[in-house]
Amino acid sequence: MTFSFTYPSAKDFNDLIVALSKATDSITINVTDEGINGRYVEPDTKSMMVILNVPKTFFSSYEIEKPLSLELNLASLRKVLSKAKSRTASVEVSETDSGMRITVKDNKLGTKSNIYVSSKKGEVNDGGEPKVSPTVKMSLDSRVLELVVGDSSIIGDEVLIKGEGEEVTFSTSERGKEYTATMRKDKPLKYIEVADSAESKFRAELLKEAVSITSNFSNVDVELGTNIPLKMRGEADAGGQVTVWIAPVI
């Protein structure tokens, strides 16, 4: 057995898988000495990148003999994990000859189930993230972000996000209609930091897709710069992050 690890929350494990599956049907996951990571880039326009990162410190147990990669069918995995949503259950993943075995164990209820998943194995293939320097950072409830982006997309095809002073605005206009949402600290932002004013424009549908990916997490961190990719990051309560980068309209 090359690897075996236990994640403490079945619900949060499922949330991470659901987030990834909203972007793609399959992804290659690296199992390394540092933890689990994976990277997906939208193949046609390269306009969106989705990254999974779960450092080994968030696992209840983590053993690995040799780093490797696993190609996962997320649609199938999401289906078999659809009932594994208990916070009192843990998820143990271990290697098999054809892929991996997932054991969902709920000590409180005394239940245990095994799921066998086939996956192609390979060498670790790490990819980087955009090397940019955002000057605006904010944090807010994912439901608020979903509402603002959803309302924006009804009005126009492109959304301008601007950070200046102590506020961030989302605005769009088309065919005589306009929409503007202004957000400040505690109204409804949980955190805002503006080192320098910045603004970028993004396709509304791409924004909606990015927000949908992070919507399973209660809180979303957003980083903005002028004419650079927008970063959104959601974090599971039990640990681990899904980060989405989307390209601006230049």
Question: What does the secondary structure layout of this molecule look like, with pairings?
Answer:
Elements: E1 3-7, H1 10-21, E2 26-31, E3 35-41, E4 48-55, E5 61-64, E6 68-73, H2 74-80, E7 89-95, E8 99-106, E9 111-118, E10 120-122, E11 136-141, H3 142-155, E12 158-164, E13 167-174, E14 177-185, E15 188-189, E16 191-194, E17 198-203, H4 204-214, E18 219-224, E19 230-235, E20 241-246
Parallel strand pairs: 14-15
Antiparallel strand pairs: 1-5, 1-7, 2-3, 2-6, 3-4, 4-20, 6-10, 7-8, 8-9, 11-16, 11-18, 12-13, 12-17, 13-14, 18-19, 19-20
Helix pairs in contact: 1-2, 3-4
Verbal overview:
The strands form three sheets. A ten-stranded antiparallel beta sheet has the order 10-6-2-3-4-20-19-18-11-16. Strands 5-1-7-8-9 form a five-stranded antiparallel beta sheet, with helices on one face. Strands 15-14-13-12-17 form a five-stranded mixed beta sheet. 18% of the residues lie in helices and 49% in strands. The longest helix is centred in the middle third of the chain and has 14 residues, at 142-155. The model has no long low-confidence stretch (mean pLDDT 93). The chain has two domains: 3-122, Proliferating Cell Nuclear Antigen (Box); 136-246, Proliferating Cell Nuclear Antigen, CATH 3.70.10. It has four helices and 20 strands. It is α+β, with helices and mostly antiparallel strands and 250 residues long. Keywords: DNA replication, DNA-binding. Belongs to the PCNA family. One of its GO terms (molecular function) is DNA polymerase processivity factor activity. Homotrimer. The subunits circularize to form a toroid; DNA passes through its center. Replication factor C (RFC) is required to load the toroid on the DNA.
